[in-house]
Amino acid sequence: MPLSEPAMPLSEPDMNEVVGSHDLLLITLDTLRYDVAAELAAAGRTPNLSARMPGGAWAERHAPGSFTYASHQAMFAGFLPTPATPGPHRRLFAARFAGSETTAADTYVFETPDLVSGLAAAGYHTVCVGGVGFFNKRGPLGSVLPGYFQESHWEPEFGVTSPTSFEAQIDRAEKVIAGLDPGRRLFLFVNVSALHQPNWFHLPGATREAGDTRATHAAALEYVDRHVGRLLAALSGRGPAFAIVCSDHGTAYGDDGYTGHRLGHEVVWTVPYTHFFLEAR
Ligand SMILES: [Zn+2]
191 CA to middle of ligand 1, Å? Predict the structure, then answer.
């Protein structure tokens, strides 16, 4: 299992010093499998993401849910993917909760039920750029997760069927950032839909009939990597920022007979995670 070699440890910043002084960016690469992400990083196929990660490698983590809604509800409550080794592991963010064993001195503790409103209470402007259906604001359920944010955006071209979804999402993020008071801290959340099925159109020569595969999933991650630098640059143009990039759950492509997610299989519960600082440009 060469892919499960321990990655270089991530920095463990004091989040009480980060919150208030830095913009915050949370990118969920929806549905991205850990094994695919690790293979591509090791092969040099995601150079822009790898350049930001300690040792150029993803941290292997366990998702807090097996599908988008469950996992994002947990993440927004402060339960980011957990290191895939026995814990307890301290958390970056946590709601005040008596007896929490994963709240440490360098954990940022918020007084609200969720991190998004906690950051708003700390003076942040909170923005959601949605991707998959749970962020499409087309009905009550698709409005729950975007509803945590002061400002939320979704368009069909941000969604799973668009071959240029990530570019459209970054275009919107750039517009939002350009209109912000430069003195106000920003929490920007982007749910990237490109990895989620359907993704066959990201692999040159693939066809709708042949459908989605592990290879088209990988091609979708290469597509994201080609453009992610523009999103990071938009943030660092405002000042220093702290970025978290992770998946919310993986997905199965026939592994042990399973297809999709919202099920308990290693390819679903194992996810890639990283975090890093962005210096002001
Ligand atoms: Zn998802």
Answer: 8
CA distance 49 to 41: 8
Q: In angstroms, how far is CA 214 from the centroid of its own chain?
A: 20
Token pair recorded at residue 76:
């927004």
pLDDT over 90 (residue 218): yes
Distance 68 CA to ligand 1 centre (A): 3
Instruction: Give the C-alpha distances (Å, rounded to integers) separating 154 from 42, 149, 191, 192, 193.
Output: 33, 13, 10, 11, 11
Helix (H), strand (E) counts: the chain: 9, 12
183 CA → ligand 1 middle, Å: 33
pTM score above 0.90: yes
Distance 21 CA to ligand 1 centre (A): 30
The CATH architecture annotation of domain 17-278 reads 3-Layer(aba) Sandwich (3.40)
pLDDT digits (tens, 9 = 90+) for 152-176: 999 999 999 999 999 999 999 999 9
Q: How far is the CA of 267 from the centre of ligand 1 (A)?
A: 13
Query: CA dihedral defined by 76, 200, 250, 81, rounded to 10 degrees?
Result: -40
Q: Is the peptide bond before 88 cis (omega within 30 degrees of 0)?
A: yes
pLDDT tens sequence across 51-86: 999 999 999 999 999 999 999 999 999 999 999 999
**Rounded to 5 degrees, what angle do the CA atoms 102, 106, 112 make?**
70
As a whole number, mean pLDDT of residues 250-262 equals 97
Give the integer Cα–Cα distance in Å for 110 and 244.
18
- Centre of ligand 1 from the C-alpha of residue 279, in Å: 29
Secondary structure (DSSP) of 21-57: TBEEEEEEETT--HHHHHHHHHTTS-HHHHTTSGGG-
